[in-house]
Amino acid sequence: MRKPRHNQARPALGVTRGTGAAALLAAAGLLITAVPAQAATPPPAPPVEVVPGEDTATPALVEGLREPVDAKAAPADAARGHLAAKEGRYRIAEPGRDLAPVRTLKRGADEAVRLQQKHRGVPVLGGQYVVRMETSGGKRVVTGTSGKYFTGLTTGTEAAVTEDVAVRRAVSATAARLGNSRLTEADAIRKEGEKSQKAQALTGTAGGLVVIPRGDGVLARHVTVRGTNPVTGEPVLEEVYVDARSGFPVLQYSGIKSVTGPMAAAARPARAGTAPAAADEPAAPAAKGSGLRLDGARVDLELSLDAATGRYGMIDHARMADTSKNTLSTWDASSQDVGDVSGQWPSGIKVFESATAEFGKAATEAGAVDAHWAAGQVYDYYRKQHGRNGLDGRGSTVNSLVGVTLFGGSYVNAFWDGQKMVYGSGDEEFKPLSADLDVVGHEMTHGVVENTANLVYAGQSGALNEAVADYFGNAIDVTASGRSMDDPDAGLIGEDLCRTKSARDCALRDLDDGATTSKNFLGVTFGTDNGGVHLNSTIFSGALWDMRQDLGGELADRIVYKALSEYMTPLDGFTEGRNAVLAAAKDLGVTAKQRNVVKRSFSAHGIVPGWEDALGVDTDRLLGKLNISGTGAQAGGGWWTASQSNDDGSEPYSVYAGRADGSGHPKLISPNDGRFHVYPATDGRNVVWVAYGTTSLDILSRPLAGGPIKKLYTSTGDISGLRVENGVVVFESFGFFGDRHVAYLRPGDTRPTYADGGSFFLATALPSISQGRIAYAKLYPGETGYLLGVEVLDLKTGTKTLTGQLGEPQSLGQTGINGKHVFWLTDENLNDTGQMGVRRADLDGGSVFDIAPEAKPRALHGVDLTVSEDAVTVSSQTPDTQWRNETLSKLWQLTTDGSRLERVSCNRGEQISPAAVSGRQVVWLDGTTGFTDLVTRTRPAGRCG
């Protein structure tokens, strides 16, 4: 008997549909069934069913075909021949030119051919089409097609932005996303010509031109940024797409697919290395061995015996002996920090070895026995159940790196980086991350996904990627353990990792958490959990889990694998994923009753056409569906200003402004000149902003009352943090060496004045301005090292006042200033709890105290701050090993003396970029509806229940 559903308060985080690449993730259209023609004998063919594509003339899904193609041609040629012959159906004019073969999956008589769309020779991001064929009796027929081919692309393919500029801007955008909301000692430059630690931490590699399929198409340069997070030291593998005409980063997301979501703590700068290639010489003899898993169970291990040393190694030749020289190998990475291994092969590591075939306590406690045994189990599952030879389907080596640390300390996470599995060492509570079969299955399935549907790891497609990884990881674990699907703990992921906690308290996720789109979907930007890849995942994986419980594991697993390998394509969201699973079930010949079970499972989780339109907020919307990323919003003088793109995000961003009370209509401020106009600020009289060009950036200004646009300053470096008051424009500039400086322009100035004098050895950042005074965070040399403080510059007198300090801050966050005080975020325990204090001082630098202490219970984890004469509003995002609604960025408001603290809004999802208007009114960017909306409240919402 099916157990009752429970709906835990554990939301699954979703894609901000109008932000970054989320505009690409359109829901599939309604199912249309053609009426079959009347026929005598033989019986009529099954009806052809078509799901039309969104914003394209090419169908998203075609089923029920039995159309002959050339049986002797190569699979890709036969597939493209079919598409060419049926141009009226597919609207693909020249498949031979515009569709390049990716891979062909063969299983028995069936073939599934994946084809990559190209626009005028340039690959289209996520543009893949799949043709399924069947061969019998020497004849080959097409049985169905699916995918995304974008027919509306007309963009040119000549780039105006060079590779060098694209790489520089991609690295700068990554650094800004990861660390420029704080000023730390890593910003220091100690000698002329030396880059800051932050600048050294990241490097970019150009990857060629790509067309992003928004509207007519956006030509972009793809850059991969690697290194370490400049603030936390976390490993960085960032995919950045820079508009090839203006140089603005229009899309960026992390390529590291981790099991828990947020990466933990710090890591050293990465060292390059090369993964070991398959050996040309004869393999070491295979051997049998054993070892104890961390749960105490003794398991058999496939090993190799080195004849020269007589030692046994965790190298499994046996499983792949019939197809390749490749292996399943388990490596001792206990000497490595996580930054040394992400996206590259670390030097100097060796496979786990033993003098005997019985591996002992050290291998057990390191998690090596678990990792090696589990990798074999996962390999066997895919080979036996789905006929798949390894992660790539071609039997390539499977490498597991075990015991990765953080500066030699604990690391609680695991991830797939596109080459290998990496398992953290664990800590006092968590075992090594290889100690649960479902975690190993999860990470290895990311490799399978990458070599099949290759679901883009951002937004809904990223959540779908995580959901499939969770589903198969759980399925493998449940099957191996013999646990019933009716067991209350059967849906848990990572439940065996803890040393003392119960399974449910330890688990990373629960596939049976009852999450639905209507109750649990959370809208966030791509800067948070890649747009919700972990938080949203249980909505979809929960539907798959329900299906498995009702249909049984063997059939459900076959359906999901077929959907993944033969139907899904890189930009599929939840609705397309649902259609793929339904089509795969039908292709496998399930009964009508079983197909209804599949439909019911998705409906129970709210995955139905149009589900995204049912979300709402408790705030007043000033400007909807901005479709922007990382540009922020500002307010002043009773007005707001923000950037906005068009409905599908395909146009460059334009600056708008409007009244904060919602009256009147928003005004278009910037010109429509093909550039991206971003980072706007206003004082109620003028709007200033940055315009991105092919080689430089311009600071522009225009009166709200109308009039000509003025160019105030041109910079070859990057600019952010604009503020304006009475014609004085304040901003933060970024130099080539990673140096940061606050600068300002008075009316009539043609060159900026630097608040720190432009000194190479000082850093100033995070400015604010009020009543003729500028406040900013400052990093400066002391007697024994660098010191952090906040300085106030009086523009009238030129006087600079450095505030006193209560302790020795490790980092400083955004400043804010009003007519009486200066405020800022401060952290004296960097890399500890992540909590930050909200500190206040008089304008003369005295009377320093914390209006919200860092060490106070339930202290804020501030990432942004804005100030009026009456209130201080803080954007607080709580770091955690698991994403959930409570950890997302929420807005909190304090009185200026700290006597009262209240939530600004009770909206779920992400709330960022607060800007004080006056009194207690704040405007901000809100992701609750799944779009990025500019919203406001005139006073806090209270306690939010």
From TrEMBL:
One GO BP: proteolysis
Keyword line: Hydrolase, Metal-binding, Metalloprotease, Protease, Signal, Zinc
Domain Peptidase M4: 291-450
Domain Peptidase M4 C-terminal: 453-607
InterPro entries, sorted: Peptidase_M4, Peptidase_M4/M1_CTD_sf, Peptidase_M4_C_domain, Peptidase_M4_domain, Zinc_Metalloprotease_M4
GO molecular function: metal ion binding; metalloendopeptidase activity
Gene3D superfamilies: 3.10.170.10, Neutral Protease Domain 2 (1.10.390.10)
Zinc found in the keyword field: yes
A Pfam match: Peptidase_M4
Active site residues of this protein: 443, 534
Signal sequence bounds: 1-39
Domain of life: Bacteria
Keyword tRNA-binding: no
UniProt record similarity statement: Belongs to the peptidase M4 family.
Protein name: M4 family peptidase
Organism of derivation: Streptomyces marianii
